[in-house]
Amino acid sequence: MIELHYWPTPNGHKITLFLEEAGLPYEIKPVNISTGEQFQPDFLKIAPNNRMPAIIDTEPADGGQPISVFESGAILVYLAEKTGKFLSRDTRQRFDTLQWLFWQMGGLGPMAGQNHHFALYAPEKLDYAIKRYVNETNRLYGVLNKRLANRDFIVGDYSIADMASYPWVVPHERQGQNLDDFPHLKRWFYAIKERPATIRAYERGKAINTQPTVSEESRKILFGQTAAQVS
Q: pTM score, two decimals?
């Protein structure tokens, strides 16, 4: 059984996408990031960066004690290795998948996240910051669109690279992006959106929370963090 410590954000959706695709039994442990549950001592034991998602595998492959993993990219690799799914054992395809996973973790996710912050949530609208991150998100969409020009998915077969990137494209309108400008990405996006596992994963998220994550009350919790929260 996988215990998934989760809230329905792009990084959280990555893991439910995998679990639904793989048919791996899991239980969601909600971590309401808008009320500060990510700072609870029990959660920090498995997620020292006070960010979800995190997992506890109560039945690891080695038969030993439960294993906890934080960081969504690391979780995807762990689950792929546990199940033997969505990460090829062929050296070339494996590292092709991993480099695109890291591309998402180091590029698309952080840049789109800053896009969301400055365009939607920052109390002061800074034109330079908004333009900076909207443009960088646009550039990254272009990189992905070019990659998908001659393949169905990012590395050919559906993989953890697709599961990592898709949730960050779901809010494309909020990011100031038009999928019509990226025809290969658009085709890929709708192919994933229509997968039964994707539908199930997003329905699980809706069952956990239907309210906006960011409100005036939660803004200080989400965006006012310093070292004091983890000391």
A: 0.93
